[in-house]
């Protein structure tokens, strides 16, 4: 039985969608048990009937979605659903944590409570991004766990994301590109130049060289390696631009009768686009480099997105990704 | 008379569109003279009739659009249209340079040939980005001139972009935000933290704090300050996502009869969106911090875009922006 801890209070639609996501997941997978961490009375409102593979672990506190100082929050909210789940992942009471709570807090809890593997210099947040190619996804590693990066961190990001892509996403020989300001060799700051040399020298990494921000969602590679600072800037620029552009299109369409009729005709096409670009279809971002899988689901996750994040946690546990990362880095 | 040097050989559609752009500009503005730098025989093909305010400065070489090593190219292509124009801007024979040629080469030529103002620590490339708000543009400074940045550079970027926004874009008290991984104070690496403190302490800068990649094109501020590395990543992520998304929409629409009919109805709406998001309407990016205005027009510029870039050069010269930047930084 794979034991998954779900932060039932995390996310914009918690605990209703987290509880529904847990039910959907246990119905889909008969080899998982889910512990719902959170305020028992709140959780029970949405539990239609008891399930022998779902239990509640009552916690008194909830970390707010808009928490300002994540590291402080982890110390202050010791009895929160997020921190308690992370503690139990550290001790081995559960095998993985899934949370749609505040990203910064979950990175802090993953790092400070679940704790990094000793072979890993810094944990990295690795979301799976949709691309414009059908059924093609790209892992970004790191999207913001470690902003002050060193070349060695980027090298490890390339290595551990490759393991994750191989094991969980079933990509046999995942291609890795380094986010940079040009595609030629020798571009970027010292950080990128030195990271490039380290990654290129490792025959276990299928390195294809530098890539630019303009191909972030082009679906050309399996893994994009970045420092947490620029990875975060790139990811949010992509997300923000998609959102801004789609809202601009909607506004334009609604500004005329002609547009409204056209929009009606195009509803199925736009629904397909939305589905294709929807990150919730593929689960959440995984915090790689800590001693148990920690999955960050999107804050706006519904039950389907949470079910997919649970699926991702289950896969990561069953493929023993944490141990494989530890071994690969130990062998260096 | 304002003397503008146009790199007639720079850009994907040169020299036809550059020559047409020059004609459009002299017709529009009677206070400018244009020198067309490039291969005389090539240029003359597209000169319908002589114009007393357009002359040709023959150069033997052209810097290729896909040049790999910009600094090397500047030394190798001494008699290129781009380098010659920059030389003449340095000596004062012309007042400003406009080029749609290779970005890296133009930054190198601006820095090494036109040369930076002694008060400026590092030049910065400042494109004017369209936003989803109508008639609202945002200056990004730096978009890639200086990748290895120090806090002081970012502070100067805030200061010089404010002068440019005030003088050329007629924004009285331009708002400035610092590109970062979170909106709260204290976010980012040491570079952002120290730059934040410097910018916040200067009462001449209308600083509104940190902003994230997700609001790059939201049109919330007049100026976004960044180091050249992350500014470049953000800008290209925005451009690439817009392009990828619009091509995905097109593909989806063309995949069914229903979509094709809808697309036909929506043609005017999509044309408006395209126009609103079109950078060519506002000119090019300016290289700030060098001793004469150097305008980088988009590589795919047509004559209209080039005319707008020439307009921008004219404005920058007539408002004496270079001297104002020099004075403002001298006064520190």
Automatic annotation (TrEMBL), chains A, B:
UniProt enzyme class: transferase
Cell location: Cytoplasm
Top-level taxon: Bacteria
Catalytic activity: a fatty acyl-[ACP] + phosphate = an acyl phosphate + holo-[ACP]
Pathway stated in the Swiss-Prot or TrEMBL entry: Lipid metabolism; phospholipid metabolism
This protein's UniProt keywords: Acyltransferase, Cytoplasm, Lipid biosynthesis, Lipid metabolism, Phospholipid biosynthesis, Phospholipid metabolism, Transferase
Annotated family: Belongs to the PlsX family.
PANTHER family: FATTY ACID/PHOSPHOLIPID SYNTHESIS PROTEIN PLSX, PHOSPHATE ACYLTRANSFERASE
Assembly notes: Homodimer. Probably interacts with PlsY.
Function: Catalyzes the reversible formation of acyl-phosphate (acyl-PO(4)) from acyl-[acyl-carrier-protein] (acyl-ACP). This enzyme utilizes acyl-ACP as fatty acyl donor, but not acyl-CoA.
Name of this protein: Phosphate acyltransferase
UniProt lineage: Bacteria, Bacillati, Bacillota, Erysipelotrichia, Erysipelotrichales
